[in-house]
Sequence to fold (498 residues):
Amino acid sequence: MAEEVAEEKQSFLDKFSEVSAKIGNQVHLRSLRDGFATVMPIYILAGIAVLINNVVFPLFLTGDALANAQYWGNAITQGTLNVATIMLAGIIGYCLARNKRFKNAIACVVVGIAALCIMMPQTLSSATASISDITELTYTSTSDTTKTKTVKYDTIAKKVAPKGYQLTSVGSDNVSGAFSKTYTGTNGLFGAIIIGLVATTIFIKLSNNEKLRVNLGEGIPPAVADTFNTMFPMLITLTIFGVVAALLHALWATDLMTLINTCIAAPLKGFVNAGPWFIILVYTLANLLFCLGIHQSTISGVLAEPILTILITENMAMYAAGQTIPADHYMNMQIINTFALIGGSGCTLMLLADTFLFSKSKASKDIAKLAVLPGIFNINEPVIYGYPIVYNLPLMIPFVLIPDLFIGLTYALTCAHILAPCVVMVPWTTPVFISGFLAVGGGTAGVVAIIWQVIEFALGMLIYLPFMKVSERAQKKQMELAEQAEKDADAKAAAQTA
Fold:
């Protein structure tokens, strides 16, 4: 009976691992994960710039000196967050081509970016135009509504309303010949994902059609031959997108970027932030998979992290603009990295602390000594495979449950306005306590975040402790049984020899 139960359990774990591996290896999802991993340093740089601009510089600068210093951070934001959509469309195209083993991957970058720009609106209303699109501001007197003042929007000083006047209109009814940061910045990332994947898929399929290739004969440089081989597939792909853009404009007076933001991005963000349950489910499955020896990013990296990363990049953009973070952005990637994966997946840094303080196992302490330095920087593979966590049932339980608990509690504290929302993407290797302070923008909010991480650390140690003791007793029993089996085998061999 026990053997049947063990076989059923093994069969379930094998099937779970097989399904998870298939999801993680799906080429489009894998390309999406790889694309975000590639541009992650750009988002981290943007986070550092936003933090310095809004927290560090105001500590010792004011007035014009502050504005001049903040130009540095604004320039970084302009080159990172404000063009994030364009970069991601090209990178996703490149990653998909590489994962499909398509030879001319650089051509897919061109296709992804070009298709994205084709699907953007050609005319922007003043209501949706970004700051860079605005040409003038109109103010109306607060005492006499018949009096107005119109000024050119070309300097920082003119952002301030004249005394006795209030802003009543921006720019003109329409702005043409410009891209809005609504579409090139963080709000357009879902569009970049969909258009980048679709355009690249069509282009690769057409490029594999021998009839669309141009044979220039021998002796032609490879770069020239590649260009002509992709010419017709590229022309056809971009023409298709141009036709779709024209039809959307002519029939419904809209564009694909607006449709994606309205019909896909907004509902998906709302679903993720309807509560912590979806994210908890994803990380439960991901960490359970890690306990079976398969990296958790196979699940979390394709199902949750791209959406969560988009949310934190949008938070950075709003924080840089001085806007309030809405409740539907409280759950984001930085909550996971900063408060739910302390020391890495499963929050194993707490287990190491328990090992140093309470363990009686020399082997466990030796592993802890080797694993503690990487663990401080949230790298915990030495613990997972060396302690081990893998297939160690007593330790698998807290490894899976502790991150879920911290996700739920951190989200609840943020909704209760006890914790400030995360507004800065800090490197995932940032040590605990430092990460909490930086992620919420420092200051008093940063101190509160540190206090919460201290509480989390103590709570994690408390939860891990009894499971660690059970694991050590089980390991000791296994060693005793192994030694006894070896003695029995030696005695049996001696008896047979005699």
Remarks:
- The longest strand covers residues 136-141.
- The radius of gyration is 28 Å.
- Confidence is low (pLDDT under 50) at residues 127-133.
- DSSP finds 19 helices and five strands in the chain.
